[in-house]
Amino acid sequence: MDSEKQNEEPPTPAGLGQPHHGVDIIGEGEPLGPISFALLADKVPKTAENFCALNTGEKGFGYKDSCFHRIILGFMCQSGDFTHHNGTGDKSIYGENLMMRNSS
């Protein structure tokens, strides 16, 4: 191994030093455990701010009592649609679809 590579620091894991938010998962009235998210606020500040506000409900609406509307076993769970509860709804603290607003 050459000495230059040997002295390199290991890569920093994604999300280290970023704000974290947790969500407590409940199924059929029983606590199932928490999920923790590292928000990449340095790369997507509006998305991170939107997630934080929806997670805390500070604007009067948010993720509280929303459901997992799509689960693919061994791959992923999808949640966050607190308007229609099926994946078709969206609401942002910015008043319009955040993805559409920031993609142009």
From TrEMBL:
<dbReference type="GO" id="GO:0003755">
    <property type="term" value="F:peptidyl-prolyl cis-trans isomerase activity"/>
</dbReference>
<dbReference type="InterPro" id="IPR029000">
    <property type="entry name" value="Cyclophilin-like_dom_sf"/>
</dbReference>
<dbReference type="InterPro" id="IPR002130">
    <property type="entry name" value="Cyclophilin-type_PPIase_dom"/>
</dbReference>
<keyword id="KW-0697">Rotamase</keyword>
<protein>
    <recommendedName>
        <fullName>Peptidyl-prolyl cis-trans isomerase</fullName>
        <ecNumber>5.2.1.8</ecNumber>
    </recommendedName>
</protein>
<dbReference type="GO" id="GO:0006457">
    <property type="term" value="P:protein folding"/>
</dbReference>
<feature type="domain" description="PPIase cyclophilin-type">
    <location>
        <begin position="22"/>
        <end position="104"/>
    </location>
</feature>
<dbReference type="GO" id="GO:0005737">
    <property type="term" value="C:cytoplasm"/>
</dbReference>
<dbReference type="GO" id="GO:0016018">
    <property type="term" value="F:cyclosporin A binding"/>
</dbReference>
<dbReference type="Pfam" id="PF00160">
    <property type="entry name" value="Pro_isomerase"/>
</dbReference>
<comment type="function">
    <text>PPIases accelerate the folding of proteins. It catalyzes the cis-trans isomerization of proline imidic peptide bonds in oligopeptides.</text>
</comment>
<feature type="region of interest" description="Disordered">
    <location>
        <begin position="1"/>
        <end position="27"/>
    </location>
</feature>
<comment type="similarity">
    <text>Belongs to the cyclophilin-type PPIase family.</text>
</comment>
<keyword id="KW-0413">Isomerase</keyword>
